[in-house]
Write a structure and sequence with these properties.
The chain is globular. Helices cover 38% and strands 16% of the residues. About 2% of the residues have low confidence. It contains 16 helices and 17 strands. With 427 residues, the protein is of the alpha/beta class. It folds into two domains: 283 residues, Mur-like, catalytic domain (UDP-N-acetylmuramoyl-L-alanine:D-glutamate ligase, 3-Layer(aba) Sandwich), CATH 3.40.1190.10; 128 residues, Protein-Tyrosine Phosphatase, Chain A. An eight-stranded mixed sheet has the order 4-3-2-5-1-6-7-8, sandwiched between helices. Strands 12-13-17-14-15-16 form a six-stranded mixed sheet. A three-stranded antiparallel sheet has the order 9-10-11, covered by helices on one side.
C-alpha cells in the first residue's frame, strides 16, 4: 500500500475503529503488540527524554504549560496529546509547530506494512507517530500525555524522567474501575522504578494508593501542597516558594490552572539537576503565553460571551462552573450540551442543572448520548435545533449578548466552531 496524499492517510485512519465513536471496543490493552512494533521500527521512544503526564483532567493543559516553560528555557520540546479537535496533526507539536503533512505521509509510507502486521489501533498508530517524529527531530525532551488510564496505555512503554498524575476522579469507570482507589491504581501504572512522581490535588484515597505504589517502586514522591497555589483573578496566579510569593501573569484563565502551574513548578524543581537552565525567569516567561490548545474555556467569538469547554466528568464540570464564575453567573448562563453515552452519571448531570437554560445536541457517533438518554436527568433541557435555519435563529436572537457555554465532549468542538463561523459570516 502506498499513500499519495494526506487525504489517503485520513481515509485509512477513518477506516480504523476509534475510541471516540466505538468506545472500549476500539481499544486493545495488550501492550506486547505495540512494544513489538516499536522494536521493529527501532524503538524511537528510547532516543529522547520524556515526561509522562496522566490523570483524569488537566493532562493536556499541564503538557502545554510544561512545554512552554521548557521551550522558553531553550530546550527543543515535543508535545503529544489526544484527542485532536480539528486536525490529526494537532496531536504532535515541537516548539509549538505541528507535524507536517509530508512527514505524516513519510511515516505511513515507511511503516504501513508493520502497522498492519501488528494490527495497531488508532491510538497506537498515533502514539507511534509521536515517538518516531520526536526521535528523528532530536527533541531534548517530550511531554507525553496518557491516552486512557495509565497501566495499559500505549504511551506506557516509555521510561520517563518523571511521572505526573494531575488529578483523579470517576471517569471511564467501565474500563478503569468504579472506585477512586481502583482508578488511582490504574493511573499509577505509569510510575517507573526509581523515577520521581509529582501529583496534583488528589482525593485522599487516591493519594494513599499512589503513595503505596510509589513506595513499592522506590519512586521519590512530591505533592504541590507546600506551594499553596492560588488563582487571584483572570490570568493571574500565585505560588508560595520558600516563604515568598511568586506572582504569575498568563493567558491561562481558569482557576484550576493554578494547580497545573504548581505541578509544572514542582516538575521543573525536581528535574533541576538535569535541566538546570530552567530559571524562575524562564518559568514566569513561559507562563505568559501558553499554547493551551482548543476547547479549554475558549472564548469562541469576539463581541459575544460564548465559550467552549470540554467538561464531561464530575471534576471537570465543577471546574467549568468555577471558570464560568470568572465571567458571569452560572444561574444566568445558557448551556448547550453534547455528551457521550458512557459519560452520563447522576452526579455529573446534577451539576448541569444550575444553568438557567439547557439545550442538548446529539452528535452522529455510535457512542453519543441521545436527547432521550439525557432527558430524565435534565428535565428542563430542550433539543438544540438540527436545521440550519432554526439554529441560526436561536444564535442570532436568543444567544446574542447572552452568556452561553457549549460543553460536554471535546468531539463537540468542531461542530460548534462550524456553527460559530456561520454565525459570524451572517453578521
Amino acid at each position: 500500500m502506498r499513500f499519495t496524499s494526506l487525504q489517503s492517510v485520513r481515509e485509512y485512519l477513518d477506516s480504523i475503529p476509534k475510541f471516540q465513536s466505538r468506545g472500549a471496543s476500539a481499544a486493545n490493552f495488550d501492550l506486547s503488540r505495540f512494544r513489538n512494533f516499536c522494536d521493529a521500527i527501532g524503538n524511537p521512544h528510547e532516543e529522547f527524554d520524556s515526561i509522562h503526564i496522566g490523570g483524569t483532567n488537566g493532562k493536556g493543559s499541564t503538557c502545554n504549560i510544561l512545554a512552554s516553560v521548557f521551550q522558553k528555557a531553550g530546550y527543543k520540546t515535543g508535545v503529544y496529546t489526544s484527542p485532536h479537535i480539528i486536525a490529526f496533526n494537532e496531536r504532535f507539536r515541537i516548539n509549538g509547530d505541528v507535524i507536517s503533512n509530508d512527514e505524516l505521509l513519510e511515516f505511513f509510507n515507511t511503516y504501513i506494512d508493520d502497522v498492519e502486521a501488528y494490527t495497531l489501533t488508532y491510538f497506537e498508530i498515533s502514539t507511534a507517530i509521536a515517538f518516531w517524529w520526536f526521535a528523528r527531530s532530536n527533541v531534548d525532551i517530550a511531554c507525553i500525555e496518557v491516552g486512557l488510564g495509565g497501566r495499559l496505555d500505549a504511551t506506557n512503554i516509555i521510561d520517563p524522567k518523571i511521572s505526573v498524575i494531575t488529578s483523579i476522579s470517576l471517569d471511564h469507570t467501565d474500563i478503569l474501575g468504579d472506585s477512586i482507589t481502583e482508578i488511582a491504581r490504574e493511573k499509577a501504572g505509569i510510575l517507573k522504578e526509581g523515577r520521581p512522581v509529582v501529583i496534583g490535588d488528589l482525593p485522599m484515597q487516591a493519594q494513599n494508593e499512589i503513595v503505596k505504589i510509589a513506595e513499592q517502586k522506590a519512586c521519590p514522591f512530591y505533592t504541590i501542597d507546600n506551594l499553596n497555589p492560588k488563582y487571584i483573578k483572570t490570568g493571574h496566579y500565585q505560588l508560595t516558594v520558600d516563604d515568598r510569593m511568586i506572582n504569575i501573569s498568563s493567558n491561562l484563565t481558569s482557576p484550576i490552572q493554578a494547580k497545573n502551574v504548581a505541578i509544572v513548578w514542582q516538575v521543573c524543581s525536581v528535574l533541576g539537576d538535569k535541566y538546570g537552565s530552567i530559571t524562575e525567569e524562564n518559568f514566569i516567561s513561559g507562563l505568559k503565553r501558553v499554547n493551551t490548545g482548543f476547547g479549554r474555556f475558549e472564548r469562541l467569538v469576539d463581541g459575544e460571551h460564548w465559550y467552549f469547554d470540554g467538561g464531561h466528568n464530575l471534576e471537570a464540570v465543577k471546574v467549568l462552573k468555577e471558570s464560568v464564575k470568572t465571567v458571569g453567573n452560572v444561574e444566568n448562563a445558557t448551556l448547550v450540551l453534547s455528551l457521550m453515552q458512557d459519560k452520563i452519571r447522576e452526579e455529573v448531570m446534577t451539576e448541569f442543572l444550575e444553568f438557567k437554560n439547557i439545550y442538548y445536541y446529539s452528535l452522529g457517533l455510535e457512542r453519543a448520548a441521545t436527547f432521550d438518554d439525557i432527558k430524565e436527568w435534565l428535565p428542563k433541557a430542550n433539543p438544540f435545533p438540527a436545521s440550519d435555519e432554526d439554529r441560526k435563529k436561536i444564535m442570532q436572537d436568543d444567544f446574542d449578548s447572552e452568556l452561553v457555554i457549549f460543553s460536554g465532549s471535546f468531539y463537540f468542538y468542531e461542530t460548534v466552531r462550524d456553527w460559530v463561523s456561520t454565525f459570524v459570516l451572517n453578521q
